[in-house]
Every structure is written in C-alpha cells, then in structure tokens.
Write a structure and sequence with these properties.
This protein is mainly beta. The protein is built from one helix and five strands; from the N terminus they run E-E-E-H-E-E. The chain has a five-stranded antiparallel β-sheet, covered by helices on one side. The model has no long low-confidence stretch (mean pLDDT 93).
C-alpha cells in the first residue's frame, strides 16, 4: 500500500507536512520540513500541485 506526502509551503517556508496512508480520509502524521525534503530528494513521485495565492500545495507518492 502506498503512502503519500502532502505539503503546504508559503515561499520557502513549510506550513504543513504530513505523511498519509489514504489521500481522501483521515489525517496524516506530521513530519518535519527536513524529513519532507529528504523524502522528496529520494525520488518521491509528484502526483499533483497547485499555487493558490501565495501558497504552494503538493502531493507526492512515497516509494517503499
């Protein structure tokens, strides 16, 4: 079963980072911005992203 990383950034500042088992239901475990950067650098697959105002929203699929 895949896991997902959801992030919200304002400029270069992370506002929210969480690792989720399901995209639609429930809430994920919070993770640090440093851990999120490591996951993204390790080859996580970008599923979707959006710029809304000054915020950047992104969802990544984590390789296991």
């Amino acid at each position: 079963m895949a896991k997902y990383l959801k992030i919200i950034k304002e400029g270069d500042i992370y506002k929210k980072c969480e690792i989720r088992k399901n995209l639609r239901y429930g809430r994920g475990k919070r993770c640090s911005p440093e851990e999120a950067e490591k996951i993204i650098a390790s080859g996580a697959i970008l599923l979707n992203y959006a710029f809304i105002g000054k915020f950047f929203y992104a969802t990544y699929e984590i390789k296991e």
